[in-house]
Design goal:
The protein is mainly alpha-helical and about 180 residues long. The chain has helices at about 10-35, 45-70, 85-115, 135-170, 175-180; strands at about 120, 125. It has a two-stranded antiparallel ribbon with strand order 1-2. The longest helix has about 30 residues, at about 135-170. It is elongated, with a radius of gyration of 19 Å.
Amino acid sequence: MQIRNSSSQYGLVAIILHWLVAVVIIGLFALGYWMVDLDYYHEWYKQAPDIHRSVGILLFATIILRLLWRLVSRAPAPLATHSRLEVLAAHGAHLMLYLLIVTAMISGYLISTADGSAISVFGWFDVPSVTGRIKGMEDIAGEVHYWATWALVGLASIHALAALKHHLIDKDDTLRRMLGTVNE
């Protein structure tokens, strides 16, 4: 398998980044959904948010890498069997997925740094607050984070269903291209 994308299929780097981001987003959503109901005396009360924040910061770096890679290695051309509407919908969905991911990450960062404190990433390094103390920012950022993550999971679900539709009903190479199993 080639490292870079070709005109007909995704390369190894794009495939790994795609699936890594997908798994991490699902994991962060599940962890976030679970941890918001933890009470002060739960053994994971402090550790779960620390993990969530640390993985979120690493995901942000991965998304930047993914966007840079996309500039260097263009996505394959749409399949000839895809209608103009499908192509436009796919481009719009991808753009919205990126916007929602970035919105969720920035709002998560603002929640965590609203009191002026830095985010420790697994004790490896700290990401400082760029805002300092801003009263009430965590509430606004929390609301944005909540809705952005739900919208992200909803749109990602539609994205996955569309890929399955192409694979199971249309029987085209849409999903196989992102799995790296297209025979060129």
